[in-house]
Design brief:
The chain is of the alpha/beta class and 357 residues long. It has helices at 29-38, 100-104, 112-121, 142-146, 148-158, 176-184, 199-205, 212-224, 245-254, 271-282, 287-297, 315-332, 344-350, and strands spanning 48-51, 58-60, 70-72, 75-76, 105-108, 130-132, 163-167, 188-193, 229-236, 259-264. Helix content is 36%, strand content 12%. The strands form 2 sheets. A 7-stranded mixed beta sheet has the order 2-3-6-7-8-9-10. α6 links the parallel β7 and β8 (188-193).
Length: 357
């Protein structure tokens, strides 16, 4: 791997045009050349936190192949910088680029806990698991500063409401006190993302995420506290990490995960351009091979938008990945299952039936 040309600490290496904007503003080449000669910074690589004020915080998920009904995102944009992240495209709706803006301009929803509480108090609301986060990581670095996720978990506990969590950050262990209480009432399940056992691969795919060892120890610590963990081995990228699937499944099982899920990478929207630019800089020796393998999974393209197929892939390359997953479940997850979360306790809470507690 040759990463000498990569911008350190970031996944995307460019800001792609926003498809919703009519005008694109770019720096003139003569100014960029001046900055290079004079040694001045064209732009700083610092993360910017921007407060936003949405009227609602819980989103209904209409996609039939995602596996969740409701999600909420305390943050938009994600400093983790995972190059393949499908959530990048959502940043364009806020007027930003799916590229570097997604990693450097983080939108902060400070009123998320209050908006969540208003929903859970509503007589019209019927309990269904709400997932933190269906889009960007609720335990990304901003959470250490703002603690919005922790406050939301306190609301879920207060109203005895089921919550799912998706993260690849060990910061979740900070909230073990709340998670233990939620687990006691069978109200929480955690999904920990582990995409490779190679730190070298992790660093260039997901530059600002927790190390692999920290994630495995996070799974172990959650399991020791009887908090159910599903491992997200996603996405599987042929030519980069798909060959690790069996080893990944064994490792997460050894650390206590009770199940795993995976997807085959797809490069939808602006992610296609961002990923292609990145891989030619990060892995120039294998860039064309990887892109070709991805195309074999999506009928000759780098993306497939058909529900039920888009995350599974098609063709012999995708089949090899699915065959490995089937074998992994037989070997390492036989007779294990991710437990269902309780929805009835929330209604009992709203009706004042507190004797169970």
């Amino acid at each position: 791997m040759n990463s000498k040309d990569l911008q350190k600490g970031r996944g995307a290496q460019q800001n792609t045009p926003n498809r919703f904007l009519q005008h694109i503003y770019e720096m003139r080449e003569d100014f960029l050349e001046y900055c290079r000669i004079e040694g001045e910074e064209v732009e700083k690589n610092k993360t910017e936190y921007i407060p936003v004020f949405p009227k609602t915080i819980v989103n209904k998920v209409d996609s039939p192949d995602v596996g969740m009904m409701y999600s909420m995102n305390p943050y938009q944009g994600c400093e983790h910088g995972c190059i393949y992240c499908y959530a990048r495209n959502a940043h364009e709706y806020w007027g930003y680029s799916a590229g570097l803006d997604f990693e450097r301009k983080i939108l902060i929803k400070k009123e998320a806990p209050e908006l969540l509480e208003a929903l859970l108090k509503s007589k019209k609301w019927k309990a269904e698991t709400i997932v933190l986060s269906g889009n960007t990581d609720c335990y990304q670095p901003a959470e250490k500063k703002f603690e919005i996720t922790r406050r939301c978990l306190q609301v879920f506990l207060k109203y005895h409401h089921p919550v799912g969590i998706i993260t690849k950050n060990a910061l979740i262990l900070r909230d073990l006190d709340i998670l233990r209480e939620l687990t006691h009432h069978q109200l929480v399940g955690v999904n920990v993302s582990v995409t490779s056992l190679s730190e070298e691969t992790r660093r260039i795919l997901e530059p600002r995420t927790a190390s692999i060892q920290k994630r495995l120890k996070t799974i172990q610590k959650l399991t020791e506290n009887r908090i159910p963990v599903n491992a997200m081995l996603a996405p599987m990228i042929p030519g980069i990490n798909s060959h690790e699937l069996l080893a990944l499944a064994k490792s997460v099982a050894d650390h206590g995960a009770v199940s795993f899920a995976f997807t085959v990478v797809r490069l939808n929207g602006a992610i296609g351009q961002i990923f292609t630019d990145w891989i030619k800089k990060a892995m120039p020796d294998r860039a064309e091979k990887v892109l070709h393998l991805i195309q074999q999974c999506h009928s000759g393209g780098i993306n497939n938008s058909r529900f039920g197929v888009r995350n599974r892939g098609e063709g012999h390359v995708a089949k090899q990945i699915h065959d490995m997953a089937k074998l992994a479940r037989q070997r390492y997850f036989a007779n294990k299952r991710f437990p269902p979360l309780r929805k009835d306790l929330h209604e009992q809470y709203k009706n004042g039936q507190m004797r169970l507690f």
